[in-house]
Design brief:
By secondary structure, this protein is α/β, with parallel strands linked by helices. It is built from ten helices and twelve strands. The chain has three domains: 73 residues, Winged helix-like DNA-binding domain superfamily/Winged helix DNA-binding domain (Arc Repressor Mutant, subunit A, Orthogonal Bundle); 108 residues, 3-Layer(aba) Sandwich (D-Maltodextrin-Binding Protein, domain 2); 91 residues, D-Maltodextrin-Binding Protein, domain 2 (3-Layer(aba) Sandwich). It is globular, with a radius of gyration of 23 Å.
């Protein structure tokens, strides 16, 4: 049987080229000469008998075949990385890396404060943090892309083997910019209810890819304006583009100075949030970190 030319090393090379945007920057990341990176790609193309890159002006872009190898290859790289980490965990009981998804509505100061204290005591553990929205955290946990989710909204998916701990509810408030037309009736709930269906909603994209995406908060009627994260949502609402729920902790200054106006609605939205991980994950680092987050993170949310 012929030797498979697609190795872990060449997949790492393709991944670096795509992420960094050039052979030279990929070589810098991989601590290799640019000629060595070019040779690795050229050799793989020759062995497979296909082109992986094509020239577009001064740039080299992946062909359809190259994109396929990269997408499938990244799954292989993630699997091998998890395998290496699991082997170390089995040998020592301590995982070398913990991946965490934090819901975009949560208190970042509280979260990173816990991580700072954790890393002072366990400096050899690598932490990888990403942001999630709505179903995105649960999907990432199920697919093994993260080990822990912080603040993902309920309900907790059933029969998935998760350990879920409820966190204090984040104080989400419906707001508009002071310049927005709704600001003049912000304290009139009946007038607001009549006008809301006509007003554009600013919505943060659900980071779920394969699961059914969802939104939360105000009515889904009317016009929509989508953003990628809470920071963008804050700026879009500040600009007067529309209305939406925002974490009070993130916008207290704007509420205090009158830049944003809280809307008084008859219906108060209550959101449940959870800290969750897979019961099968028994690494000592994850166990300790979840204890610290449960003890400190929830208290920080309540106190603020």
């Amino acid at each position: 049987m012929a030797k498979n030319p697609i190795t872990i090393e060449v997949l790492e090379t393709l991944d670096a080229i795509d992420r960094r945007g050039s052979f030279a920057k990929a070589a810098e990341e991989l601590n290799k000469a640019t000629s060595a990176v070019s040779y690795a790609v050229q050799k793989l193309e020759e062995q497979l008998g296909i082109a992986l890159f094509q020239r577009q002006g001064r740039r080299s872009v992946l062909t359809s075949a190259g994109k396929l190898i990269l997408v499938e290859g990244r799954e292989i790289l993630q699997t091998t990385a998890r395998l290496a980490n699991k082997a170390k965990e089995v040998a020592t009981g301590w995982e070398p890396r913990i991946s965490i998804a934090i819901e975009s509505t949560q208190s970042y100061p509280a979260f990173f404060g816990v991580l700072d204290e954790f890393l002072k005591a366990h400096s050899t553990i690598e932490i990888d943090v990403c942001e999630s929205v709505l179903n995105g955290g649960w999907e990432a946990l199920e697919q093994g892309r993260v080990d822990l989710i912080v603040g993902s909204p309920g309900p907790v998916p059933l029969q998935k083997g998760y350990r879920a701990i409820p966190l204090a509810c984040a104080d989400l408030v419906p707001v508009v910019a002071s310049r927005h037309e709704l600001a003049s009736i912000a304290t009139n709930p009946d007038a607001l209810q009549r006008r809301l269906p006509e007003v554009r909603r600013v919505i943060t994209h659900d980071t779920s890819v394969s699961d059914i995406t969802r939104s939360a908060g105000l009515s889904s009627d009317g016009k929509h304006f989508y953003v990628q994260n809470i920071d963008q949502k804050v700026e879009a609402i500040r600009a007067g583009i529309g209305v939406g729920h925002l974490p009070r902790l993130r916008i207290q200054n704007q509420l205090n100075n009158g830049e944003l106006v809280e809307l008084t609605l008859n219906k108060v939205s209550v959101f449940e949030y959870y800290l969750a991980w897979k019961i099968s994950d028994k690494g000592k680092g994850l166990q300790l970190l979840t204890q610290e987050l449960t003890a400190v993170f929830g208290e920080a949310l309540i106190s603020n």
